[in-house]
Amino acid sequence: MPIITEGFSLKNHNTFGLDVSAKWFAEVHTEQELQEAILWAKEREVDLFLLGGGSNVLLTQDLDCLVVINAIKGITVLSQDENQVLVRAAAGEIWHDLVVHCIHEEWGGIENMSLIPGTVGAAPMQNIGAYGVEIKDVFVSLTALHRETLETKVFSKDECQFGYRESVFKRDLKGQYIITSVTLRLSKKPVVNTTYGAITEVLDSKGIAEPSIKDVSEAVIDIRRSKLPDPKQIGNSGSFFKNPVITVTQFSELKKQYQIPGYPQEDGQVKVPAGWLIEQAGWKGKRLGNIGVHDKQALVLVNHGGGEGSAIYQLAMDIQASVQSQFGIEILPEVNVL
């Protein structure tokens, strides 16, 4: 049985650094402890909230529930041949630690997602992605525990219904399952992807003409660190908003008024950078007391210290309204608000 602590501060368990409390708190290291925590909450008719790395959540108030940290670890090779390897990672593993491990083993496929904060278990929930790669590109399956029946179910890629920063676990099955492990198919003969963002530019500056997966990873890390603030230095959750996808017609109309960047999608629509929209609306670098918008990346909302989650949420809504008013585009949070 995991240790249940009452009145536990979550300040060190969310990257915004917000000092809110959980009425009860537990950290689980095995699936059995996870089941015991679920039963503990059921017996007392207490809600249970699973908290990963705390990098994709905005806590606006104290939580009147049992907050559980999934600390189940382990990386296992299920099968391999000369071309590929199937790797299962426990949900409590830190995502970037998994990336580093795979690069060390020379398994390619997730190097472009280096330094994305959070845990492995949270990764498929929102189909994490960066620099031209998403987890769905290497995803095989996941195992998850049903909160009510405590039965384990294996979900295939199709069953996860991946979309842009979403999955079935954020829609139809929201709150029903707890992911316990994820299986990925990685390449032993990787072909690197350097087409997105400034990766090629960074590699060129280092004089690297034929990059390895480690080179690509290090380039991505350099770019992310130059754009995104370290949560240890200033509270933030990385990109707060999703990049909106609009119709070609709407994009063409906006092009008549603005030098708006856009990226054509497979479905015929156009993805527009939310950071560009927010910056054009005048929010970049704006500070409101202890909170604000980062001065280098308008997608990032920050807690300068002593800020409150409710104030950050109000700022996010004000930004949404401003962008909607100026461009007629709705930008949606990527962060879960509690």
TrEMBL record:
Q: Give the EC number.
A: 1.3.1.98
User: What cofactors does the UniProt entry give for this protein?
Assistant: FAD
Q: Which residues form the active site?
A: R165, S239, E334
Enzyme class (EC, first level): oxidoreductase
Pathway, per record: Cell wall biogenesis; peptidoglycan biosynthesis
| Pfam families per record | FAD_binding_4 (PF01565), MurB_C (PF02873)
Q: Does the keyword Cytoplasm apply?
A: yes
What reaction gets catalysed by this protein? UDP-N-acetyl-alpha-D-muramate + NADP(+) = UDP-N-acetyl-3-O-(1-carboxyvinyl)-alpha-D-glucosamine + NADPH + H(+)
Domain called FAD-binding PCMH-type: residue spans: 17-189
Q: Where in the cell is it found?
A: Cytoplasm
Q: Which GO terms describe its molecular function?
A: UDP-N-acetylmuramate dehydrogenase activity
Database matches in InterPro entries:
FAD-bd_PCMH, FAD-bd_PCMH-like_sf, FAD-bd_PCMH_sub1, FAD-bd_PCMH_sub2, MurB, MurB_C, MurB_C_sf, Oxid_FAD_bind_N
* The keyword Oxidoreductase belongs to this UniProt entry's keyword annotation: yes
Membership in a protein family: Belongs to the MurB family.
Protein's recorded name: UDP-N-acetylenolpyruvoylglucosamine reductase
Which species does this protein come from?
A: Reichenbachiella agarivorans
Gene name? murB
